[in-house]
Amino acid sequence: MVRQFIEVCTKALMWGKIIFPLSKLRFYPPQFVVRDPIVQGVRKAFKEGNEAAVIVYNIKNLKDLSEQIPQFLYREFIKKLKIYFRDVIRQEMSEEDIIALHDYYSDGLSFYIRVNHDRHCISEIDGLMKKILREAERCLHTSFPMLQPVFDMGYMFVEKKNYSIREAVYKAQQQALAMAEKRVQSDFNEMLYTISKVISKKDIYLLAQPIIDVQTKEIRAWEMLTRGPQGTALESPLQLFSVARQTSLLYDLEMVVLEKTFELIKTVECKQDIFINFTPITLGNERFVRDLKNIMAKHKNISPQQIVFEITERDSIEGIKDFLHNIKILRAIGFRIAIDDTGAGYASLNSISEIMPDIIKIDKSVIQNIDKNSVKESMLKGLLLIAKEAGSLVVAEGIEREEEATVLSRNNVNLAQGFYYARPKLLKKEVLFSL
């Protein structure tokens, strides 16, 4: 009987290896099981054209905390921890952007969010993470003043190209945890190596979207858009810049973008204006002006008047020591300054008064369906008055329909860009003056 049982098991294992080869199987650690609601939420976000990201808060001193207090109080602490984070997240985020809350694992907790390209950016995620942590820590300190949990934070976008959403979610979770912990010999080091390799080899490519004269329909300028190595997870600008930011290599990456842009202008002999996106962190770096002059020395045929530095990402300029000083130097050299996402929030409006930009870019949230919304058209008129007072040109972003373009035309908006006119493309000589 025993012999027969062994023979049956042996045959079952043999057929199992044939039907389910080990190379095709995926094993997940027992402490993390992706629940269906998370997978379903991520899948729905992808179908709607959005991204999904996992944010991790790791408790560095969890073991020490567990030894400081009785077990029943420790369990109460963990329970309250989850409740406070859940409540703060719901206060700070809209319900539609939350995929899953307080998924608890090992030494920390995580939550999943929907990321809309038009409403979110990397610096906003950074700011959101810090704000949630501050509020949760305040609540914890009130309830458990004797405990001092120490948190690390990390986040990662879920890769769309992975054949299995479940596996992609797990991978993003592990990478976000690695970003939070910054462990030795971990995924963090692998990502650090990967992004360092991208920067050292300048392994990025640039797409260009035309900026159109609303009245004449002629191309007046191009905005450069960065993509990482083709066919990799870092091809997505969200992935590329989020990893660079968390590994403290954002400045290096943006300088590669600047250098590649100058090289592209020279190669295609572009004479039109070029918009290049920069975060205030980079523009405020004490090395920026010096490094920019080194690049200019290699491309003396490119005039500073041709380049527009577009301040993007909605980063606050407060506290960035050399930002306004560098802006003055850039203007003195001949470069122009644009502010992105105007109308999307207080930060961009406040920046206008401090910087007095040459160009104001009106956010897509104002332009979308403006032909159907009189309040939005009133907002547009108000922003045009602000631009006139500041002496700034106006570029409207995100135009997707003819009706939206008509509203811009009757309000005498200077310039516009969006899918209605043209999608981003590789910049070549033959496309410089054609739509």
Automatic annotation (TrEMBL):
Residues 188-435 form the EAL domain. Signal peptide: none annotated. GO terms for molecular function: cyclic-guanylate-specific phosphodiesterase activity. SUPFAM superfamilies: EAL domain-like. CDD domains: EAL. InterPro entries: Cyclic-di-GMP_PDE-like, EAL_dom, EAL_sf. This is Diguanylate cyclase/phosphodiesterase (GGDEF & EAL domains). It comes from Bacillus methanolicus (strain MGA3 / ATCC 53907).
